[in-house]
Amino acid sequence: MVPATSDTPGDDRRRPVEDDEFSVERRTIQGHEALVTRYPDRVSVEWRPTHPVYFGIHVGDRLKDADADVSSPRIDEWTVTVVTPELLVGEHVKTGERREFDRARVEQGLVVGNYATNLSGFERVVVHPVGSWETYDPDADTDVVYRGSPYVTVVAYGNNGETYGVRYRYTEAGNPEPVTLWEEDVSVGRLDDDLRDALTAAVETALTAEGYTVA
């Protein structure tokens, strides 16, 4: 039998939660608001909504004994096999040991750096236009108001708490709709093919929803 360990507190410290219960809980973590969405089958935390960081864990993701999404032979990792309203169950990737984790501790631990998870998807994508053709003036002083060639920056928030930025430039001067990929963050270039495809799909969906046409 595979050994099992647990870090879940006693029943007297937990509020019973039904399997089909859903709610949004507001907490304060490290002096900032956190919105913890209580899906019964996955973890979702938005910390510091004014300058957000997102964390999410689904079955099949990795829970890491680390403060960031890194890999090392010295870091313990568990493949998450079960997510319930009260706990997560993981199997150690090396030993197969089964371990139970208190869900609330994991939710807080992702924010404060006690736990990390691998990138498996993008929790949110935000589109920011920078400048406009109406204010474009290549000879203007840009110290206060940007009047250079307008472009669009897109930020994708990974479920691992990291961000992935790409920038698009307009393909036609004066036309605010057609755009094409221009630049990307270094972190984007490190993604494997599957995650890169997922990022591209998420970004292009967000651009289309905002009225842009991706060339």
Question: What does this 3D model show about the protein?
Answer:
It is a single chain. With 215 residues, this protein is mainly beta. It is 14% helix and 38% strand. Strands 1-9-8-7-6-10 form a six-stranded mixed β-sheet. Strands 11-12-13-14-15 form a five-stranded mixed β-sheet. Strands 2-3-4-5 form a four-stranded antiparallel β-sheet, with helices on one face. The longest helix has 17 residues. The N terminus is likely disordered.
SSE order and pairing:
Blueprint: E1 4-6, E2 24-29, E3 32-37, E4 43-47, E5 53-57, E6 62-64, E7 77-83, E8 87-92, E9 98-102, H1 103-112, E10 116-117, E11 122-130, E12 151-158, E13 163-170, E14 178-184, H2 186-189, H3 193-209, E15 213-214
Parallel strand pairs: 1-9, 14-15
Antiparallel strand pairs: 2-3, 3-4, 4-5, 6-7, 6-10, 7-8, 8-9, 11-12, 12-13, 13-14
Question: What are its keywords?
Answer:
six-stranded mixed β-sheet, five-stranded mixed β-sheet, 38% strand, disordered N terminus
Brief summary of the model shown:
With 215 residues, the protein is mainly β. It has 3 helices and 15 strands.
Order of helices and strands: EEEEEEEEEHEEEEEHHE
Q: Give the amount of beta strand, in percent.
A: 35-45%
Strand tally: 15
Q: Biggest sheet: strands side by side, in what order?
A: 1-9-8-7-6-10
